[in-house]
From TrEMBL:
Entry protein name: MFS transporter
Sequence ranges assigned to domain Major facilitator superfamily (MFS) profile in this UniProt record: 30-443
Keyword Nucleus: no
Record's keyword terms, sorted: Membrane, Transmembrane, Transmembrane helix
GO CC annotations, alphabetized: plasma membrane
Segments traversing the membrane: 30-56, 68-88, 95-114, 120-141, 153-174, 180-204, 265-285, 297-321, 328-349, 355-382, 394-413, 419-439
Secretion signal span: none
Classification via PROSITE patterns: MFS, SUGAR_TRANSPORT_1
Length: 463
């Protein structure tokens, strides 16, 4: 619950302080720290996709045998997403990020010691709790350390680190799997986030907007603002006037109150369908390509290309949103993802492998651009008191789509082959476009210097 008191006369408005002036080096450093957390998230989250073809052959299993294992991780991600948002809004963004990174790092290390599918499934569930929690917590940190005029690009640059982490996982797996095997893949892959989590304990500060709502932590906030080159008088009181003006309730109920319910439900649907498509690629793309006759290394390059395209797609979409607002760039990316998936059904995998890999990169460009920038829409729709909860709830519904992908991917590849798999991706992305068209409070355009001159209106619009 919020501990914010009624603002005293002359209280410093934290929203005005953060949105005015330069985006300082200290603020940018915090965004980089949040982004690196997401790199670790994407890295550890996608290691299993590269290991599945190897484990199928080594243990003599079928694709269907791995569906519960993949689903267990995604169930954990859904629970982690929902709980991390509530935790972050109640206890702080800092420990939500740190705890998430340490949980998925330690659990990933332990997978390297597992001796059967049951053990891998349990540990992937635990890792999923951390992987799911890292995304909403880190994006909230980014949103609350970034001025309004830079917020969309900063959030997208943070989320784009999921496919970036997956791309690095592909390069890492390409070197480790052939030489050291799948156990080393998880042991070494888990040690990286554990080490990074310890670094975060030492250097990651708490969100200034979170601190502003807790009078007992105002001295900490004053010191933090000094580090951000925004000094305030000793003993200063704080408020978040623009945010509090729009807040009537906290928690999940606030997401469905009048004026916000349609956007919330539309975002839930968009996240569900988009993560169904994205995690169908993360979990099953190498397996699908391997089943179609490509060797493990080439099959893995398909997912690496998908992630590589996603990095560029997300950044370009974020730039377009800054100039044109979020509605049309997001709709065009979602429709592009659908069109690309349908077009790839006509490519022969055996004779046109290069064309297929390039097409998968383009599909990743559109699908991940949509996914990454939807978090910025969440940060725009929801105010401080429920921003982490709102983002986490959308992601939790998205995880339900990801869970469905664990079973649907295995079933569709088995029954419909690569063609059925690609049609599933296309239908999901078409549904994303429809859902995003129903969102009413899209991010407005902010055009260069004009946005700076209209700062007060822009800041209010960001709420």
């Amino acid at each position: 619950m919020s501990a914010a008191a009624a603002p005293a006369p002359g209280a410093t408005d934290i929203g005005e302080v953060l949105d005015a002036g330069h985006w300082t080096t200290m603020q940018k450093t915090v965004v980089v720290l949040a982004a690196l957390s997401i790199v670790m998230d994407g890295f550890d989250g996608q290691l299993i996709g590269f290991a599945v073809p190897v484990l199928i052959k080594e243990w003599g299993l079928s694709r269907g045998d791995f569906a519960p294992v993949l689903a267990a991780a995604l169930v954990g991600m859904g629970i982690g997403s929902a709980c991390a948002g509530l935790f972050a809004d109640r206890f702080g963004r800092r420990w939500a990020v740190i705890g998430s990174v340490l949980v998925f790092g330690l659990a990933t290390c332990a997978i390297g010691l597992a001796d059967g599918l049951w053990g891998i499934g349990v540990l992937r569930f635990v890792a999923g709790l951390g992987i799911g929690g890292a995304l909403p917590s880190s994006t909230t940190v980014t949103a609350e350390f970034t001025p309004a005029r830079r917020r969309t690009l900063a959030i997208t640059a943070t989320i784009v680190c999921v496919p970036l982490g997956g791309m690095l996982a592909g390069l890492f797996a390409g070197h480790v799997l052939p030489t050291l095997g799948w156990r080393a893949l998880f042991l070494l892959g888990g040690l990286l986030p554990v080490a990074y989590g310890l670094i975060l304990i030492a250097v990651l500060p708490e969100s200034p907007r979170f601190l502003a709502r807790r009078p007992n932590r105002w001295p900490e906030l004053a010191r933090l603002l000094g580090r951000m080159s925004r000094p305030v008088p000793a003993g200063a009181a704080f408020t978040d006037a623009t945010e509090q003006k729009h807040e009537r309730r906290e928690g999940v109920a606030a997401l469905l109150e009048t004026g916000r319910a349609r956007d919330t439900i539309a975002l839930w649907c968009a996240f569900f369908l988009n993560l169904l498509a994205v995690y169908s690629a993360f979990s099953w793309l190498p397996t699908m390509l391997n089943a179609a006759g490509l060797d493990v290394a080439v099959a893995g390059s398909g997912l690496t290309a998908y992630n590589f395209g996603g990095v560029f797609g997300a950044l370009l979409c974020a730039a377009a949103i800054t100039r044109f607002g979020s509605r049309w760039p997001l709709l065009l990316c979602a429709l592009g993802g659908a069109a690309t998936a349908f077009a790839l059904t006509g490519v022969d995998i055996g004779t046109s492998t290069g064309l297929l890999i390039a097409g998968l990169g383009l599909q990743g460009f559109f699908a991940n651009a949509t996914q990454s920038t939807m978090y910025a829409v969440c940060a725009h729709v929801y105010p401080t008191a429920v921003r982490a909860t709102g983002t986490a709830s959308a992601l939790a519904f998205g995880r339900l789509g990801a869970i469905l992908s664990a079973f649907a991917g295995a079933a569709v590849i088995t029954s419909g082959g690569s063609g059925g798999y690609l049609v599933m991706l296309g239908l999901a992305m078409a549904g994303v476009a429809l859902s995003l068209a129903l969102v009413g409070r899209h991010i407005p355009a902010m055009r260069g210097a004009a946005s700076a001159r209209a700062a007060p209106a822009a800041v209010a619009a960001e709420r």
